[in-house]
Amino acid sequence: MRKQRAKELYKTLPGIRVGQASDFKGLTGCTVIRCPEGAVCGIDIRGSATGTRDLTPCDPGHLVDRVHAVFLTGGSAFGLDAASGVMKYLEARRVGFPAGPVRVPIVPAAVIFDLGVGYSEARPDTRMALEACRKATTDVVVGSVGAGTGATVGKLYGLAQAMKGGVGFASLEFGRAVRVQALAVVKAFGDVVDPKNGAILVGARKSKKSFKLADTEAQMLRGASRQGFGTKHTTLVVRMTDARLDKLQATKVAQMAQNGMARAIRPVHTQFDGDLIFAPSVGTKRTDLNTLGTAAAGVTARAIVNAIKTAKGLGGVPSYQDIRKSVA
Fold first, then answer.
1. What is the pTM of this model?
2. CATH number at residue 110
3. Which of 219, 247, 270, 288 is 20 to 30 A from 91 (CA-CA)?
């Protein structure tokens, strides 16, 4: 694997660490969000094609009240096996739910399908997950890295006319110094748009050799063939906050954060997408739940746009940066 560095770093909340491992040859990778002290975590799923593992501790009625990491990975369902590497890392450090003589790390996980880019046999494994855990710091690297290494968007006409997705991050402070953050892995069927004006940033291209964008929504409404839609798309978001929440409240914030996904991706939550939002809380600060949900929607939209603007073209799939260079 060769190393790739992003130009900008972003800082996580206290109690959160983010680590990523990337295979730039196979074009896949994984991202781990570690919560060593545990985090109350809600979840909201809107897509119909998810690939997940161990989500039930995020349900309000579940006995386990905290998660110790969230794992996002490429490799489709194969990549879910790599979550065991996160569990091994945490177990070795006695991090987990107390269960008699052992502590069991609680690690909900979700995948994107990136087997069509790079080598289809390249999938994140236990070794890669351990690498991501060891690299986890308060700095978040964005772009074509981690679980977003092989991510693509705008698949109306298939991968040949798609564009590059990636990992994005955004943060906001409001009220009495309450912070909310979002990390997004963007591999959407639809186009990514500017939430401010609806302009398409990246998406399905009109032809393989053109940077001109087709406007997926418009083409669908004009009767674009369903055969070109495919079934392998997903946007994953981890919405983090230092506000004090229980699981029911965290779930509500995750639901409201989905509004941000809808602002930035068009169309979104389709039958072909596995869109979901994890919502861990690691803080003790009090805040209005509706205000927090509104803020969460805003940072979710910004994180999605950040992923697109920082991604680099890989595997022959062009990026937003390539479009900018072509018109410069």
1. 0.94
2. 3.60.70.12
3. 247
